[in-house]
Design a protein that fits this description.
With 218 residues, the chain is an alpha+beta fold. The chain contains seven helices and six strands; from the N terminus they run ααβββαααββαβα. It binds zinc ion (ZN) (2 copies).
């Protein structure tokens, strides 16, 4: 019987694989003391996208299958340093092994990278962008009271007759009034462009420092 390699879900496109290979070689040169011992090519690592709709995780590593998962939007971000920093982080995991986790030695080596500060800034910007894109894609609906401007976030649509109870109480003797009906805000054309919005799952996980041997978030 022939055993075939298990297929990889969401493999990165050829174009993006070429970008990854280039960054991999750059990092090997730039940080030769850390990555110099790694193989010349990237064939020993599998690269895939994180599943759509991932919000808090930007990249992760699986040690058992030597697979790196990278956020799809990281390839579309305006500055290539973001992708480089994410790969830098995950490659460091591969070099240091699962036991090192994010322990001080890991942090020290990561932050010693000359471009770490600049990368961190882009990473923060990217996290905000991902959150906004998820919200605008309909994962989180924003509603605003036209009077007091209070904003409510909802995962489902409100009934159209929902009004702001605070304003009805203060300004209308506690009687429902259409004047204080919530208005849906924050929509953009992102929602119209993204046909896959409904297939997404929203993950509101907090960023955590938990270590697990197999999977980790950065
Ligand atoms: Zn109100
Ligand atoms: Zn990590």
């Amino acid at each position: 019987m022939i055993m075939s390699k298990p297929t990889l879900s969401n493999p990165v496109s050829v174009e993006n694989l070429l970008r990854i290979r280039e960054i991999y070689r750059e990092l090997k040169n730039e940080r030769n003391d850390i990555f110099g011992g790694l193989p010349y090519g990237t064939n020993w690592i599998r690269f895939r996208y994180l599943k759509l709709g991932t919000v808090r995780t930007l990249a992760s590593v699986s040690f058992s299958t030597t697979t790196l998962s990278i956020h799809r939007l990281a390839f579309e971000y305006s500055n290539p340093l973001l992708l480089k920093g994410l790969l830098h982080h995950e490659m460091l995991h591969l070099v240091l092994g699962s036991d090192a986790g994010h322990k001080p030695i890991f942090r020290r080596i990561e932050t010693n990278w000359l471009r770490y500060e600049e990368y961190s800034e882009h990473r923060r910007r990217f996290v905000r962008l991902v959150e906004e894109s998820e919200r605008d894609a309909g994962r989180l609906l924003r509603y605003e009271c036209p009077n007091c401007k209070v904003v409510l976030l909802r995962t489902r649509k409100m009934k159209p007759e929902s009004s702001c109870s605070k304003c009805c109480k203060i300004h209308n003797d506690g009687v429902w009034s259409e004047m204080y009906s919530f208005i849906r805000v924050g929509l953009s054309d992102v929602e119209l462009r993204k046909g896959d919005a409904n297939d997404r799952t929203y993950e509101s996980r907090k960023q955590s420092n938990d270590e697990s041997s197999n999977h980790e978030r950065i």
